Amino acid sequence: MTRLKMGMIGGGLGSFIGDVHRKAAGLDGMISLVCGAFSSTEEKSIASAKAIGIPKSRAYGSYEQMIKAEAKLPEDERMDFVAIVTPNHMHFPPAKMALEHGFHVICDKPLSLNMEEAIELEKIVQSTGKVFALTHNYTGYPMVKQAKAMIAKGDLGTIRKINVQYLQGWLSSAVEKTDHKQAAWRVDPKRSGIGGALGDIGTHAENLVEYMSGIHINELAADLTAFGEGRTLDDDGNILLRFENGAKGTMTFSQIATGEENGLAIKIYGTKGSVDWHQENPNELIVKWLNQPKQTYTPGGNGGYPEASEYVRIPAGHPEGYLEGFATIYRSFAKELNHVKQGNSPSSLPDFPTVQDGVRGMNFIYKAVESSSNNASWVTLKS
């Protein structure tokens, strides 16, 4: 496999998520960061590049400048793909330009600022044939993949009930009114879109449910609230779910659940058994059976399925977590990109979230807002 060259848009000095992406991309030795438009000004971008060891000549003052300049370089020098690690309102413009200039894209979630951008981006990905990945990083955990494989093989029987929660407490006070950049853009509709906690963590819950179960949400009834004084976007939500196979479920998410840290958890119940996974204890998958003792699966431990074992990097008993989840998406993306660079067509079902998943996530946001604005009425999601 060829070591791939990555460019980055956003993620400059002081950026939390940019540093996460850089570490994750480099973890498996398949990708090198070679250039970037790291900040909104050339001066800041150059300073960020210097701090992470990128030469000044490959530090750009804007994403437009970077994409145009990189496209002119010889193929063995220019970036192969771009990672977009900006706030939501700056996902679509650079993604569109990069794809149209021949570059593959990996992008933070949600896919875009609004539904119109999401639909257009899906069309551009299809027309260009480029590889596009969305960093719903929780799909990268080995025990999530273990659960997915068990459900797909029918181990749990017919799925009938799914409960998912994603609880945080970091917006319990008005931190956006302080010098907290992460909070400031997330509560701003111009930069975040129509969903607050819904778009930020609700989409993670939605994506995890569909990825792990293999079943699409068909209908929902949502009750969204902005508890924070002066906030226009939701910071708390409760949603009833109906699935395409007849299963029922619940979703609760919040960023004002005081004292909670990153409480993402999911339980999926079938006719033969159930799975129980908690992100804050990601190396254990609890499986409960109808007529047998419960089991605990661990990364690299006994009984793990190949679909999960493929992504275990270290010996059993050594914890893997957040960075490795991101790295798994980068690893799968890199394998797919190399596959395409060898002249093959893109895979129909790559093992990472795609632009189609991003469109479903945006549709989920819009339908939840529609439902909540109509007193939690039932609405149908597009298939």
Net shape: globular
State the strand order across the main sheet: 13-12-11-10-6-9-8-7-14
Q: How would you state the average pLDDT, rounded? A: 96
Spell out the helices and strands N to C.
EHEHHEHEHEHEHHHEEEEEEEHHHE
First and last CA, distance:
36 Å
Q: What's the helical proportion of residues? A: 25-40%
Number of strand elements: 14
Give the strand content: 15-25%
**Mind summarizing the main beta sheet?**
9 strands, mixed
| SS class | alpha/beta
Total helices: the number is: 12
The low-confidence runs, each spanning 5 or more residues with pLDDT under 50, are: none
Radius of gyration: 21 Å
Report on the structure:
With 383 residues, this protein is an alpha/beta fold. It is 36% helix and 22% strand. It has helices at residues 16-26, 42-52, 63-72, 92-100, 115-128, 142-152, 181-186, 189-192, 197-213, 306-309, 322-341, 355-373, and strands spanning 4-10, 31-37, 81-85, 104-107, 132-134, 159-167, 217-225, 236-243, 248-254, 263-270, 273-278, 285-289, 295-297, 379-380. A 9-stranded mixed beta sheet has the order 13-12-11-10-6-9-8-7-14. A 5-stranded parallel beta sheet has the order 2-1-3-4-5, sandwiched between helices. It is globular and about 65 Å long. The model has no long low-confidence stretch (mean pLDDT 96).
Task: List its salient traits.
about 375 residues; nine-stranded mixed beta sheet; 14 strands; globular; alpha/beta; single chain
Brief overview:
Helix content is 36%, strand content 22%. It has twelve helices and 14 strands.
